[in-house]
Amino acid sequence: MRLAVAQIITGADPAANLEVIREYATRAKAAGAELVVFPEAAMRAFGNSLADIAEPLDGPWANAVRAIAGDLDIAVVAGMFTPGDDGRVRNTLLVTGPGIDTSYDKIHLFDAFGFAESDSVDAGTSPVTFELNGTVIGLATCYDVRFPALFAANARAGAQVNIVCASWGAGEGKAEQWDLLVRARAVDSTTFVVACGQGNPASIGLPDAGTAPTGIGHSAVVSPLGTALVTLGAEPELAVVDIDPAVITDVRAKLPVLANARSL
Fold this sequence. Notes:
By secondary structure, this protein is α/β, with parallel strands linked by helices. It has six helices and 15 strands. It has helices spanning about 15-30, 60-70, 150-155, 175-190, 245-255, 255-260, and strands spanning about 1-5, 35, 75-85, 90-95, 100-105, 110, 115, 120, 130, 135-140, 160-165, 190-195, 220, 230, 235-240. The strands form three sheets. Strands 1, 2, 3, 4, 5, 8 and 15 form a seven-stranded mixed β-sheet that branches. Strands 9-10-11-12-13-14 form a six-stranded mixed β-sheet, covered by helices on one side. Helix 3 (about 150-155) packs parallel to helix 4.
């Protein structure tokens, strides 16, 4: 499977962000990718209001992403915001493309490091996987990466690949934690992990947004034994990488952590 990681930096304007998605998806298709992964908050960057731009999965922004995927004949994963309860939103990953239309609502909300995502976001409740050309792929969003059980649940549901879309918060040690967690989730679920984060706004001269997690870059694709197959820096970038999901069977024979796990 050839896939692309689109480490973009989004702003406040959903229409402008949509054009960035179109540009990177076009580049990914030209490079032969079957799938292009965009970060969390691709619809609108954190640090801006969310409720006023949240829309249903059949709304105009999501349908525009579907049109891009359909025109290019490529699968797209992109972070958006959908309406939640009590005036809040859901932090949603839209997955669309040939024969694919599903979504995942972020389960673990980022109430940490001085930011309270639950003030404005409703938590999801269920893991989600989808199939692309015979490969089963699980979904996760940002803070979810700190919770191994989600990645294991996706693997037990058949996932050979786990995608993590993020807008990681900056701070002391945070880049090191991101690298550690992404690699750990690959090993303890014995899946490829495709970790796509927002680039660091400071890398292109944009001001910070207080405690809002606006991204640090450092997207990566990691093998099921924890080897980084590709790593990015802080700036916007498109990376294309080939992975072989068929190796998962052999990896799990050598390292049967899913089979050996016990309920405690």
